[in-house]
Amino acid sequence: MSDTLRLVIAIGVILFLLATFIVTFILYKRTPAPKGCENMGPNKERCKNCEMSCHLNIYADRKENE
Amino acid sequence: MNTTPYIYTFLLAIISSCLIDNVVLSRFYGICPFIGVSKKVKSAFSMGVAVTFVIILAALICWPLYHFVLLPLQIPFMDILTYILVIASLVQIVGLFIKKFSAPLYQSFGIYLPLITTNCAVLGVVQTNTDTALSFGLSMANAIGTSLGFLLVIVLFSTMRERIEEYNGNKAFKGVPIALISAAILAMAFMGLMGIGAK
Amino acid sequence: MSERSLQHKESFITPILKQNPLFVSILGTCPALAVTKSLEASFGMGLLFTFVVCCSNVLISALRKLIPEEVRTPCYIVIIAAFVTITRMLTEAFLPELYSSLGVFLALLVVNCIVLGRAEAFASKNSVFDSLLDGLGNGVGYTWAICLIGVIREILGTGMITFGKIFTFIPLFRIPILKALDGSFNYSMSVFSLPTGGFIVFGLILAVIAAIEGRKKAKEKIKLQAEMKAAVKGEK
Questions:
Q1: CA-based nearest residue in chain C for residue A23
Q2: Is B117 a residue whose pLDDT tops 70?
Q3: How many distinct structural domains can be found in chain C?
Q4: Residue A63 lies inside a defined structural domain of this protein
Q5: Residue B50: inside a domain, yes or no?
Q6: Which residues of A touch B85 (CB under 8 A)?
Q7: Which of residues 197-236 of C touch B (CB under 8 A)?
Q8: From A48, which residue of chain C is nearest by alpha-carbon distance?
Q9: Is the ipTM of this complex over 0.90?
Q10: Residue A63 carries which DSSP code?
């Protein structure tokens, strides 16, 4: 296989995977949650002090320290 | 000459990556969810099952991807990028299925789903499978053993933690520190399994 | 102008002590337990981590107005993966001992919660310079944190600090610190070099930090109560 063909196929593979990811990501975000789960998610007041992205804050359900 | 039937090697590989070289307590892969999600047994179990699913599927997809696509194209250095894209897409797909078909499952670990992408265990297993040039069978054994080991340890640890919640010793140890010390003892217990057969 | 420079200083200083990514936010714990068997390896890991987090913060901050809102996370993951791949190749070429000692944890920087967390929480909203400072701050904070764990584990586990095994341009020399009970230097309490020791040391450090925080809070509470009493007395 010539070099340029390999390069093109390689870029194509990466872009295909990236497109798959973006498509599934957007699909997931746009699918509505089942009824009763709409307002799930980390409690934003509790993790406002952590300055880390809330969905990565694994202590979202941690009780407040006295 | 090695005349052991392949099935024995396969099973031994599963047991060794599940118990002997345990993914969390010995290889240190899934520590973030191990500490963070293991407060209740139910959520720990759901997290473990979801991670099992993702690890096995990811290993199933990534090994052929590496050996039949990346290597012939001579871009083995792109493995990190391709693996993380595959894993992230898998997590989104699993999330889609759960959202659409199982509301109780979504309720129990819906918010932990994005965490599986950043779980070191998933990427770690897939990466070691190709870094150490394992065959496909051994890669799948590694993946199955790792995921079962993760499930086992996170459920064990969550049962321990539910008891530790009633800890009323020194206040400084409350919460994560005493959990880590208990994890240390758990790690010591698993160390006792070292030396059973070779990987 | 002074407010700007105060903000710059804050974004650099805060992650080092007050918001230390490892000890306060308890993120990025996988490498913190796995590569801290020796001080040198921890330092190497911290260095590479700093490089990755600074580069990704800078690039993400530079592109923050161009990336559409919905596809932020995929773009961040791709950018971080690119930098981790670059770091991996550079390390394999220039520091091969560090590369073989870190193993797969160099690739796992891609899913390091700190890198992705800073990208989403800080670099997507602040200027390039602030993000660079924040990256440096987090890097320094993480590095000193894992070096602390590493030095404790190495001293207690092998009784000496070894330099030169990983950064081979330093000549190999050891600083013996602890002696075995029979007076020789054959000390080794290998539990600290094992995974168990990692958990123990990390847990103890977190407990010490919690104790210090608790004492500080108790002092503040006492001060507050004294002030309130004084205010009430003053009113009377």
A1: C71
A2: yes
A3: 1
A4: no
A5: yes
A6: 14, 17-18, 20-21
A7: 197-200, 202-204, 206-208, 210-211, 214
A8: C121
A9: no
A10: P
Mean pLDDT value across chain A: 67
The answer to the question of residue A65 being in a domain is: no
- Chain C residues close to B177, C-beta within 8 Å: 203-204, 206-207, 210
Q: Is residue A27 part of a domain?
A: yes
Count the domains in chain A.
Answer: 1
Chain B: touching chains (3 or more CB pairs < 8 Å)? A, C
Would you state the pLDDT for residue B32?
Answer: 80
B196 within domain boundaries = no
Q: Minimal CA–CA distance to C139: which of C101, C112, C168?
A: C112
CB burial readout A17-49, b (16+ within 10 A) else e = bbebbbebbeebeeeeebeebeeeebeeebbee
Q: Is the pLDDT of residue C6 over 90?
A: no
Amino acid at residue number B107:
Q
For chains B and C, CB pairs below 8 A equal: 119
Three-state SS sequence of A13-42: HHHHHHHHHHHHHHHHHHCCCCCCCCCCCC
Segment B64-74 mean pLDDT: 87
Listed range (B122-131, B161-170, C100-109) with the worst mean pLDDT: B161-170
Q: Residues of B with CB below 8 A from C107's CB? A: 80, 123, 127
Arithmetic mean of pLDDT over chain C: 86
Numbered residues of chain C with Cβ closer than 8 Å to any chain A Cβ: 19, 25-27, 70-71, 73-74, 77-78, 113, 116-118, 120-122
Tokens of A60: 């979202």
- Supply the pLDDT for residue A40: 57
Q: Which domain holds residue C135?
A: 2-191
What is the domain extent for residue A21?
Answer: 3-56
Q: Provide block-wise average pLDDT over 10 residues at a time, chain A (66 residues).
A: 85 92 89 65 46 44 37
Query: Which residue in chain B has the smallest CA separation from A33?
Result: B99
Nearest CA in chain A to C221: A66
The nearest CA of chain A is from the CA of C121 a distance in Å of: 5
- Alpha carbon of A40 to those of A61, B40, B94, C116, C187: distances in Å? 11, 17, 18, 22, 53
In a domain, B130, yes or no: yes
Chain A residues whose CB is inside 8 A of the B89 CB are: 17, 20-21, 24-25
Residue B2 lies in a domain: no
Give the gyration radius of chain A's Cα atoms.
Answer: 20
∠ CA B124-B141-B155, nearest 5°, is: 70
